[in-house]
Amino acid sequence: MPDDASYLLCAEDAAGAAFFLDAGASTCTTAENDGYWCSGAADDEKESAAAASFIAELIGGEADYSPRSDYPDQLRSRSVDPAARADSVAWILKVQVSYGFLPLTAYLAVNYMDRFLSLHRLPQEDGWAMQLLAVTCLSLAAKMEETLVPSLLDLQAITLLLLSTAESTRYIFEPQTILRMELLILTALNWRLRSVTPFTFIDFFACKVDPRGKHTRYLIARATQIILAALHDIKFLDHCPSTMAAAAVLCATGETPTLPFVNPSLAVNWCIGLAEGSAAATN
Known about the structure:
The protein has helices at residues 14-26, 45-61, 71-76, 82-99, 103-117, 128-145, 152-162, 175-188, 202-209, 216-230, 241-254, 278-281. By secondary structure, it is mainly alpha-helical.
């Protein structure tokens, strides 16, 4: 055993760590940074080109933080229980709202869960394993993104207030059980928790349809709602995060009468590497 904490570091090289440090800094969706891509530094032509190149680089790496490509087929064939997944997603979103967690926290929890399920088969009897996985993934996501993280028991205790009578058989797991599951998930995901998500891209895409930034805050907020609502539907697992972000922004734009119509087939021109699935994802 090493005499320092170096063995706890993620299994990502220094370049990857710096890559995501920059990603987090430049795509923040706080009020102070709304419209970053629309004004200021992004006004300069060189800066705009650099921003587009940076986003293209993120798109190039997003597959490394997605479930295996055959995972949607596993759900459709029911080798992975789609109903159990849907219940877990619903629970994660309920807890996210109840605790006021960031939307990114909920998305990451589902992302970790899907990535793990695409690699490992869980026992399906009684549903306890899927519930343990959902609790553990939300715990990991909260540790990644939240400044105040409830205890593992409190994270589950709120479940009792959210459950209907029909759902009263939900399990409550001991903290040590969840911690052991955390290590199993971290190992399966190769400690890669700083994922590329649709939230990485929505600021940039929102400013593509609203360069002056007048409606950027609304577009980002509405696109966020659309992305979270889509987590239940397994058909969206066929699309990469950048495509989901583009589709969500296009949908939000269509709901804003003062913004001009954007042909979804032209959205691929927003950035190099953006897949042509944004039009299909909006349907």
